[in-house]
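Case study 2.
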Amino acid sequence: MITYEDFCSRVPCDKGEFEIAQANAKKKLAFIISRYGDENGERLADWYLEQLISEELRAERVSKIFKSVFEDRAEERMRGISA
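Prediction:
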């Protein structure tokens, strides 16, 4: 099982980010295994879950950036309309 300390010694993140990414990665892993199998135990290895956690963490960070940019632009448009 991958712990916060082990994971974050390689990939900088805070505990909240890790917990969300880990929960999403476990759901994704369960889906992958149910759909495609465990590939002779390969998908049950810690490194596989760690890779999924990294992908989820990256996706969440990119999503936050895009959301922030979208909100900033929407706010600028609203200021332009009300001026």
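The chain has a mean pLDDT of 92.
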